[in-house]
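Same chain as my last thread, 397 residues:
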Amino acid sequence: MKIYHARIVLPDQVIENGYVSIEEDRIAQIEPGEPDTVEDEDLDAGGKWLIPGLIDSHSDAIEVEIEPRPTSRFSIELSFAELEKKLAAEGITTIFHAVSLMKQNTVRKGRENETVYTLIESLNRLAGGPHLIRHKTHLRYEIANIDALAAVSALIQNGKIDQLSLTDHTPGQGQYRDLEVQRRLLVEHRHYSEQEAEQIIDETKKLPKLDPQSIAKLTQLASAYGVPVASHDDDTIEKLEIVRSWQAGISEFPITIEAARYARQLGMLTVMGAPNLVLGKSHSNNLSAHEAVKEGLVDIFCSDYYPASLLHAAFKLHYEFGISASQAFNTVTLNPAKALHLDPLIGSIELGKKADLLVVDVSETSRPQLTHVFVDGSEVCRMHYLTPQPQQTVEGR
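reply #2:
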């Protein structure tokens, strides 16, 4: 099939009016102008954007889908099936489910060791069955979870995870360097009392952490098995130098502009949250994505906790920040594909790559309106936007 009359976004340029031919699951032709022939199965894009499917390198959405309320927990089968329908409708064609391995008896049962091991097994099993989009597993390993080290090593060796990030949520540094932010989270969102929240913070401060030698051995193992390693919530130059020595090539959510600058100097790719860009601020009162973008320090945007933000962030970069369409869309397509070693297969509209494609219209206010989603050359989602009709008047009134 062909998608024609399209504004095609390539890695380094935009074809203002062209067409893409798909053969089986691959992109077979990319040309400017009109196709010689049009078949019934072909799609007239009507001048809309044609962009690569979005690659979300870090999304907590599966945890929320399973446990939308502290006392409500749905099965992984139901959650997986329902979540991927939402993700497809948001233009995400490859998702890295960020599952958090915090510690045994953590404040969130869904992040306890045995629960997470079961979840990872289920994600791998379900990804191999009927599905709409590609599913990958991103393990967020809390370095205070010493008991899980052997299990994490086994997950890497058995090919169960596709990205490893090292997290440290010790109060007073990283994401929670502002303790009031953590207290508010525990009280307002986790429904703990003020006293319980204070107790949790105090106990978390005292937890022992993995020693540097053990972490280095783990990251070397990940590198040997081709699993990309990320560092999470980098806040100091000293921490960045350490995590870089651990072969971390990705800096997720740097806390300060100085950390983002230094990560770039070290050759690390910087990931920021798309909600941060869309909202104009960090929900944890940390580095604003606006500031980082203005300094050219953001390589990748991920959806973090709000999948719908990813497509909106890319269009915001283009229309509000004046960044070229190719550069803007690369932050949610080609750049994450490169960071996660997937770029030979997906992440851009190029000959021979998988036909993961989105057709996107734009409203009068520059808001993206997704109309068609293709994965492996097959249409998995189509949306038709209804427009208000003029009110009919009754004769004589």
